[in-house]
């Protein structure tokens, strides 16, 4: 019995320093930095080309013949230069300058006969017997257990807040 010959497995491509560097470079970062840079260089070159003097071939051409009817343009006016200061004054004494600052003066209220708002009080239907829940001098009802709180919230159609506090409340050193 003969064993069929297997084709040889191809060898992996040789890893070179160049190939590993090409894979190590993040080309998105190169593009994000390189594209604006080359755009700036190209814009600078285009500005230089537009500002460049006329080519040398134009200088070799003879100037056009002047016509007698065309008057000469007036010479350009010189640019005015600021005169130098006559003297430099250094002050050693300063004088106070009064500054007027507007101040709001309390005036009478616009509406004088507004009754004071009544103190907020819960309606009688919101109070529960003392054995069912406690308020601890707040407006929040604290129920002793989760089932009672869930039942009260369902009956009054209100949301339920579960506050879990861990600790040993009998010993003040632990809480």
Compile the SSE list and pairings.
Layout: H1 17-24, H2 27-51, H3 56-60, H4 146-156
Describe the structure.
With 175 residues, the chain is an all-alpha fold. The chain has 4 helices and no strands. The longest helix has 25 residues, at 27-51. The model has no long low-confidence stretch (mean pLDDT 75).
Strand content: under 5%
Structural class: mainly alpha
Overall average residue pLDDT: 75
SSE topology string: HHHH
Features:
mainly alpha; about 180 residues
In short:
This protein is an all-alpha fold and 175 residues long.
């Amino acid at each position: 019995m003969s064993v069929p010959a297997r084709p040889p497995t191809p060898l992996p491509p040789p890893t070179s320093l160049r190939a590993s560097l090409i894979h190590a470079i993040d080309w998105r970062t190169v593009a994000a930095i390189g594209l604006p840079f080359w755009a700036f260089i190209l814009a600078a070159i285009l500005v230089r080309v537009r500002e460049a003097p006329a080519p040398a071939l134009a200088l070799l051409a003879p100037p056009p013949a002047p016509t007698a009817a065309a008057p000469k343009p007036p010479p350009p006016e010189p640019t005015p230069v600021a005169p130098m200061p006559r003297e430099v004054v250094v002050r050693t004494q300063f004088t106070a300058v009064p500054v007027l600052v507007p101040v709001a003066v309390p005036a009478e209220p616009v509406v004088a006969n507004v009754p004071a708002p009544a103190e907020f009080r819960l309606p009688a239907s919101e109070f529960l017997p003392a054995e069912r829940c406690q308020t601890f001098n707040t407006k929040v009802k604290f129920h002793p257990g989760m089932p009672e709180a869930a039942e009260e919230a369902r009956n009054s159609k209100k949301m339920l807040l579960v506050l879990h506090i861990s600790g040993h409340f009998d010993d003040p050193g632990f809480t």
